[in-house]
Amino acid sequence: MTLILATTTPGEPELFASLQGEGASTGRPSTFVRLSHCNLACQWCDTAYTWRFEGDNRPHRDEAAFERKANQLSLDEQDVAERVAALPPDRLVITGGEPLLQGAALARMVEALSAIRPGFHIEIETNGTVAPHRALDPLVHQFNVSPKLAHSGNPADLAQIPERLAVWAADPRAFFKFVVAEPGDLDEVLALQQAYAIPGERLFLMPEGRTGDVLRERAVWLADICVQHGLRFTDRLHIHLWGDTRGT
């Protein structure tokens, strides 16, 4: 059985060791596996090469369309596990795209990884619309849940599914990360926090941006908002260090 991964260059899977750049694990050495496919389409998505292939007309501000063969790669689950085990970090971050779309295959890969090298901390980044596969869920230590706000361009009935948000809010493994582009986005975040009783210590606000200059500009007012409302702030460390590039 196989997993469908994104690529750094044609034929090379986006599987690499780096520092986690966002959220509750910022700064921790981690191995990243980026999977392909997504059920949403964010206008500002910085990994559109995982979903906006030629013929996909869902809106994106860059209007770029990616050739599928050059940007996707199928690898055997055992192969992925062995590649992860060969890298130094003992923390695995599975990202996308939307990784939970491949939940069953991920469960088999994580089980294979545990057999090769036990003790990995398993972290999954998700948009929060897909339930973890029943075989995968007990293997995961941390979920980084990033529900999409109106400015993402996704309809709320697709991006904010009440039953899923309620389950995530009740799960202590789930940390929420909201991408904020302007101060007015806070009203939507606070409404969701109140509706689902999301604890402030598990709720991060992150500036939207793909350059260090934009992130720094937005961080100034976003940090003040976090202080005022008892929420956590997260930057995008990898953008400041390496820019908006694959494999970082």
Structure description:
It contains eight helices and eleven strands. By secondary structure, it is an alpha/beta fold. It has one domain (2-176): TIM Barrel, CATH 3.20.20. This is 7-carboxy-7-deazaguanine synthase.
Structural features:
TIM Barrel; 3-stranded antiparallel β-sheet; alpha/beta; 11 strands; 248 residues; 8-stranded mixed β-sheet; 8 helices
The termini sit apart by: 27 Å
> Which regions are unreliable across 5 or more consecutive residues at pLDDT < 50?
none
Rg, rounded, reads 17 Å
Assign a percent range to the helix content: 25-40%
- Give the H and E element order: EEEEHEHEHEEHHEHEHEH
Round the mean pLDDT to the nearest integer and report it.
98
Q: What is the CATH topology assignment?
A: TIM Barrel
Number of strands: 11
* Overall CATH architecture: Alpha-Beta Barrel
Main pleated sheet: 8 strands, mixed
Number of helical stretches of at least 4 residues? 8
Structural class: alpha/beta
Count of distinct structural domains: 1
CATH top-level class: Alpha Beta
Percent strand equals 15-25%
Placed side by side, the strands forming the largest sheet appear as 3-4-6-7-8-9-10-11
State the shape: globular
In short:
Substrate binds at residues 19-21, 34, 95. With 248 residues, this protein is α/β, with parallel strands linked by helices.
Topology:
Elements lengths: L1 E8 L2 E2 L1 E5 L9 E6 L33 H4 E5 H9 L5 E5 L7 H14 L4 E6 L15 E4 L10 H4 L2 H9 L3 E7 L5 H11 L6 E5 L4 H18 L2 E2 L3 H6 L6
Parallel strand pairs: 4-6, 6-7, 7-8, 8-9, 9-10, 10-11
Antiparallel strand pairs: 1-2, 1-5, 3-4
Helix pairs in contact: 2-3
